[in-house]
Amino acid sequence: MPKQKLGVNTICTHVGEIKDEQFKGAISPIYLSTSYEFDNVDVKRYPRYFNTPNQEHLVKKIAALEHAEDALVFGSGMAAISHLFLAFLQKGDHLVVQNTLYGGTRNFIKSELPKYGIEFTFTNGYQVSDFEAAIQPNTKLIHIETPSNPLLTITDIRAVADLAKSKGIVSSIDNTFASPINQNPIDFGIDLVMHSATKYLGGHSDILAGAVAGSKSHIERIWNVGINLGGSLSDFTVWMLERSMKTLALRVKEQNKNARKLAKFLAKNDKIAKVNYPGLKSHPQHKLAKQQMHDFGGMLSFELVKDIDAMAFLNQLQLIKSSMSLAGVESTMLLPSKTSHALLTPQEREAVGISNHLIRFSVGIEDFKDLRNDIKQALTKVKTETFA
Ligand code: PLP
Question: What percent of the chain has pLDDT over 70?
Fold first, then answer.
């Protein structure tokens, strides 16, 4: 590997490759063994110890993309979050967590942390003052999500990281929506960056995985908990993820481009009441997003005008799939109130601004005009049906 600083496409393609010394193949071999020689070897390899050849190599790619010293991969994004939280929080500790975030994370915090005697506070908003107000003497971790799922709110990463540092608190971020191509939070002082690798890192809607990147000492702390919790990723999926990540930057750049154009198109349409996309000048944190993101991402959400039923609209789409999850090469839409945030009470959804009309749009790599035409035809049909 050359010594100079590598470009992002080169990192995606080559960093963390395993050289096939035996047959000189062009791609990384896959090592599925769960049993390795224990005598006369420095490293006692075992998949649950996050140290098989494929695991050890893939994390180099993730760490390089996140400007981190080290990383670990897990069996899911939730495994990454739970290992991170349980590594830095113990009985009597307190977590400060952003109120607008992925519903599964909120559910994990509310259902599981009390069992461990860990306290938590959801912030009132996503301004740094909201985080400051929630800190207690026993706060050990501050966790943010920006852009957030599904409202695309933007939190000031540097301000929160500085606040945490000034109080000796560890900070972490869910960087899933941005991907490392659009945002590198470690450059702004955040300690730990996690991903649902099921999303952009995998990118083809066929992998369930998670990742955390950070300093060697922070990652070691998670490793110590991880070998007990046992949430490592199977080597077959590790290999799939390495292959998928070769095209991460290419995919994400195309998704950014499509999302930017589609957000503008939707914002101009009189059947759309509201569009949430940090790349739009109308987004309340557009300036901040510009400062801390390389580009604005492939995720957006929008609300139809009140007299159009959101589900009826989704049912009219021919190309864009109504399906769960996000960040695949194919465009998808869903209703967060029925899916990612279904576990929240209606009051909780209302408090964070997730209405029953809100549609989350994960923009894929298809041609912009085909996506625009699909939305156009669905809007036309749904109007006829609603008002007929
Ligand atoms: N974080 C965000 C922002 C997500 O959207 C999701 C899943 O949708 C997760 C974490 C959890 O990831 P996983 O489903 O891979 O466990």
Answer: 98
pLDDT for the residue numbered 386? 52
| Catalytic residue list contains 102 | yes
Residue 243 known to be catalytic: no
Q: Residue 97: which pLDDT band, with cuts at 50, 70 and 90?
A: very high
Q: Please tell me the pTM assigned to this model.
A: 0.95
Residues contacting 154, CB < 8 A, separation 6+: 126, 146, 147, 278, 283, 285, 288, 289, 292
Specify the ligand 1 atom closest to the Cα of 145. Answer: 3
d(Cα 154, Cα 64) in Å, to the nearest integer? 24
- Is the peptide bond preceding residue 114 cis, with omega within 30 degrees of 0? no
> Looking at the chain, how many residues does it have?
388
**Which amino acid, residue 202?**
G
The answer on pLDDT for 39 being more than 80 is no
The model's confidence at residue 344, banded by pLDDT at 50, 70 and 90, is: confident
- The pLDDT value recorded for residue 388 is 45
Query: Which atom of ligand 1 lies at the shortest distance from residue 176's CA?
Result: 3
| N- to C-terminal Cα separation, the chain | 64
* Residue of 46, 48, 158, 274 with catalytic role: 48
All domains in the chain, ordered by first residue: 8-245 (3.40.640.10), 249-387 (3.90.1150.10)
pLDDT at 356: 86
Mark whether 48 is an active-site residue. yes
Q: Given 130, 174, 191, 295, which residue is catalytic? A: 174
Which residues sit with their C-beta closer than 6 Å to ligand 1?
76-78, 102, 104-105, 149, 174, 176-177, 196, 198, 208, 210, 340
